[in-house]
Design a protein that fits this description.
Shape: globular
Structural class: mainly alpha
Number of helices: 24
Helix content: 40-55%
Strand content: under 5%
Number of strands: 10
Distance between the termini: 85 Å
Length: 623
């Protein structure tokens, strides 16, 4: 009894209260992580997530900055850079060896590679343990889940920095509510489990905002002889460089940063601007030099993103081109792209920013005159960043956005969400202070009701129906690993989802060429033999007229109709003449020889939990 009384006394006196709150908070976060992932986790469903992951694995395995996802455009650039041959190897496209990656900036893949070196995940599918399978059927891929947890940890760091910044600029009430709304933002949870670099770029952005606030404060209230001012300015340049090396489009924020420093940098603003620019260039120059040395372009294949679109190269035609035509003038198509995409951003993306009703409060909050000069000046930076990112997102939009409208690396406005939530909550508290409540409890109920409304989208994720963890169609990891095991490590595959083959199958795979005749043989005969062709619902379930008929006699649609569906006769010179049994109608695998045993049927795509364990495989095509 004396011990119990002592414990109660410490709890009432407050000496243990802080520790108890910390423990309860940690348990609540763990419960949220477990509950959300159990309920809503899905395997990777975007090209970018799988591309970054397979690149990180190559780094972790000591293969250097090389990729197994081969873009024909990358082959063209490397081949043009190397000339007719690459020394004695006579492999100008670098397909017979590890192919250099020209699409991804390096910071996020290196961060994933460091995580993989520490955790060493198992790359094969686990079909025996619960959570990863359901009644013997594949359900979740463990490395996907590990990367999702890694990004969720970064997400918590974003929330922590947002809390500290909001408490510094506003008050604890704004800080707590902003953090809670960020934690309950369903859109950010989906980004965190999608495998994209968004959480890391968001962390860099909130760090950048912190540095700008510190610069502004040091200008108004100098300390330490002004030395801190230059340290903070160098930090701004460092974060800008790291952000650009995580996502190239982030580099455009050098414009609002430069204007901010010019306006609020005080008498040393010129030096601060030059210091920030110098550190920024020092960080990004080595990587740009590497890209120019390998491909002749500062950003590799990403250099041409502005040309992709209906007025230039529609869909993924540019990335799938072995000999793209850059001679026609694309400049007249740039402004129509800006206007069309800009209109869509302003009409749809911006009003739905954050996935709840806080955005209107944020937009209204931008018009208020806050008494704190740090808040006012950070607001100007936020407004300039918003305008800059709208233009950059409009120019840089590609087919990746159409493939995954919300969860993609081209969604730049989502990076502003921490500051958006902070200013939106700040306006809410300003309006709350103008209201007279008869009791303090009523004020608390109003705040609680506001938070509940903002968190409704997140709460709905825990209600039926429960989504299937597999992103099928078109991705079915067991089938991808099965066909990949049939291939040797040094052999080249071709697929309509080469990023998935590279990630799940760990095999070198080139993107399906634009035609089944000239471009295919340009790869097979002149660069490296294609030993396997793997097609999924990405192609087999595509629009019949636009993807099958319009490409003409040389298109893959005509090839499939003639060779697989109607005449069942391959062209005389086509090297892949053996079809694996049990794959149609969802998949098709063609090879140069029989690599499978007849009793080795592929894993069947799971349509819903509790599907039959051994569904009968459909009949295979004959030659």
């Amino acid at each position: 009894m004396p011990y119990l009384q002592e414990v109660i006394q410490k709890l009432e006196a407050g000496s243990w209260t802080r520790h108890l709150k910390t423990i309860l908070t940690v348990l609540a976060l763990l419960g949220l992580v477990v509950g959300y992932n159990w309920r809503s986790f899905r395997n990777f469903g975007t090209q970018e997530a799988m591309d970054s992951a397979q690149l990180a694995r190559n780094l972790a395995q000591g293969k250097g900055y090389t990729t197994d996802f081969i873009r024909p455009l990358s082959v063209y650039l490397v081949k043009e850079r190397n000339g007719d041959n690459a020394g004695e190897s006579k492999d100008p496209a670098q397909l017979k060896e590890d192919h250099p990656d020209l699409a991804n900036p390096p910071v996020y893949p290196f961060a994933l590679a460091a995580m993989m070196k520490v955790l060493r995940p198992n790359w094969t599918i686990n079909s025996t343990k619960p959570f990863w399978n359901f009644r013997g059927q594949f359900l979740r891929y463990k490395p996907d889940f590990v990367i999702a947890l890694f990004n969720e940890m970064i997400f918590f760091a974003v929330i922590a920095l947002t809390f500290l910044l909001a408490r510094r600029l506003f008050d604890p009430g704004v800080a707590w509510l902003s953090s809670i709304l960020l934690l309950g933002c369903e859109l950010l949870w989906r980004f965190s489990v999608a495998g994209l670099s968004t959480m890391l770029v968001m962390l860099i952005f909130i760090g950048l905002a912190w540095c700008l606030v510190l610069v502004e404060q040091e200008v108004r209230e100098p300390s330490a002889g002004g030395r801190k001012l230059f340290i903070f300015a160098a930090g701004v340049g460092l974060l800008l460089g790291l952000g650009m090396l995580t996502r190239y489009s982030f580099g455009w924020l050098i414009l609002p940063v430069g204007v901010y420093l010019a306006l609020f940098g005080g008498p040393r603003k010129a030096v601060l601007c030059l210091l920030t620019l110098g550190v920024f260039l020092l960080i990004v120059s080595p990587w740009i030099y590497r890209n120019v040395k390998v491909s002749g372009l500062p950003f590799g294949t990403a250099t041409f993103a502005v040309l992709e679109g209906p007025n230039g190269f529609p869909e993924h035609q540019l990335a799938r081109s072995l000999s793209p035509n850059f001679k026609q003038n694309f400049f007249p198509g740039l402004f129509p792209k800006l206007f069309a995409n800009g209109r869509a951003i302003l009409q749809s993306d911006l009003p739905r920013l954050g996935g709840n009703w806080l955005t209107p409060l944020f937009l209204a909050g931008l018009l208020l005159g806050f008494r704190n000069p740090a808040i006012r000046r950070l607001r100007y930076f936020l407004m300039m960043s918003l305008a800059t990112l709208v233009v950059v997102q409009a120019f840089g939009r590609t087919q990746l956005t159409d493939d995954s409208p919300e969860l993609n690396s081209e969604n730049l406005l989502v990076l502003l969400l921490p500051l958006v939530f902070m200013f939106g909550v700040g306006l809410f508290y300003l309006m709350l202070d103008q209201m007279n409540f008869p009791f303090p409890l009523v004020r608390s109920l109003v705040v609680g009701g506001f938070g509940f409304l903002m968190l409704l989208p997140m709460l709905f994720t825990f209600l039926p129906p429960r989504p299937i963890p597999i992103m099928f169609p078109p991705y079915h990891p067991p089938s991808i690993q099965l066909v990949s095991r049939w291939m040797k490590q040094s052999e080249l595959m071709m697929s309509d989802i080469p990023w998935a083959v590279a990630w799940y199958g760990q095999r070198q795979c080139i993107w399906l060429t634009r035609d089944a005749n000239e471009s295919f043989y340009a790869v097979n005969d002149l660069l490296k033999p294609v030993r396997g062709l793997y097609l999924t619902p990405q192609t087999l379930d595509g629009p019949f007229v636009t993807q099958w008929i319009k490409p003409g006699a040389q298109g893959w649609g005509t090839f499939l109709i003639d060779s697989v569906m109607l005449r069942r006769a391959f062209p005389p010179t086509f090297p892949l003449r053996e079809a694996a049994p049990g794959f149609l109608p969802d998949h098709l695998f063609l090879s140069d020889h029989v690599r499978w045993s007849l009793d080795n049927s592929p894993a069947s795509p799971l349509t819903k939990p509790g599907a039959p364990e051994n569904p009968a495989p459909p009949e295979a095509p004959t030659k």
